[in-house]
Amino acid sequence: MNDIVLYRFPVSGHAHRVELFCSLLKLPVKLVDVNLVAGEQKKPEFLSKNRFGQVPVIEDGGVTIADSNAILVYLASRYDKTGTWYPRDAAAAARVQQWLSVAAGQLAAGPSTARLVKLFGFPLDHARAVTVATQLFGVLDKELAKRKFLTGETPTIADIAIYSYTAHAPEGGVSLEPYANIHAWLARIESLPGFVPMARPASAA
Ligand SMILES: N[C@@H](CCC(=O)N[C@@H](CS)C(=O)NCC(=O)O)C(=O)O
What CA–CA distance (Å, rounded) separates 89 from 27? Predict the structure, then answer.
């Protein structure tokens, strides 16, 4: 199998969820860093891969896919022979999709946005982002009291989509201290064979 090319930014949680999933599936990957600070993602060459000018994007043979959650669905559907990461059963698949929507919704508006403000100085509403994050983590912690992973006793792409920005929430000034069940879930993901962490920005060290 040829390498899957992953266009990423090393401290992007959206890109990390793809890198992590490739590693868990043991897929060969060539990482290509896109310099978001220099605006490389808005240049014509990159816009031809993703019209929204954002990482992550993958190229797999002749297939180009943008959007982290779409990429997770693609990789699981194409390469996970076990069928457990993105279940075929209609109700189980819908339960995974619910969390992918949370990843694109509350996770992006909450912990991800708070991190953009604290680490990169984006002029966004930090207080609102913290409120969204706190509400999200309250729900997440209660859910994770009931089962090992977000939708059941084994991990799915829902867990991968939610993991990176949750684990790195403290970089955005959102504490994970109150959430024992989230801590245990993060540790379960980090102990999966093939787990790779996301880099911590120097400013968060
Ligand atoms: N919905 C997209 C969001 C991706 C996203 O927000 N990427 C950020 C990095 S974390 C980006 O490329 N930002 C650069 C820009 O918007 O110019 C996904 O899930 O992939």
Answer: 24
If you measure from the C-alpha of residue 159 to the centroid of ligand 1, how many angstroms do you get, rounded to a whole number? 19
Confirm or reject: Cβ of 41 under 6 Å from ligand 1. yes
Whole-structure pTM value: 0.97
Report the residue among 36, 54, 115 best suited for mutation to probe ligand 1: largest number of ligand atoms under 8 A from its CB: 54
CB-ligand 1 contact for 69 (6 Å cutoff): yes
Q: Which residue has the tokens 């297939």?
A: 63
Q: Residues 146, 150, 154, CA angle at the centre, nearest 5°? A: 95
80 CB within 6 A, ligand 1: no
pLDDT digit string, tens, across residues 23-48: 999 999 999 999 999 999 999 999 99
Q: What is the pLDDT of residues 119-176, one digit of tens each?
A: 999 999 999 999 999 999 999 999 999 999 999 999 999 999 999 999 999 999 999 9
DSSP code string of 48-86: TT-TT--S-EEEETTEEEESHHHHHHHHHHHH-TT--SS
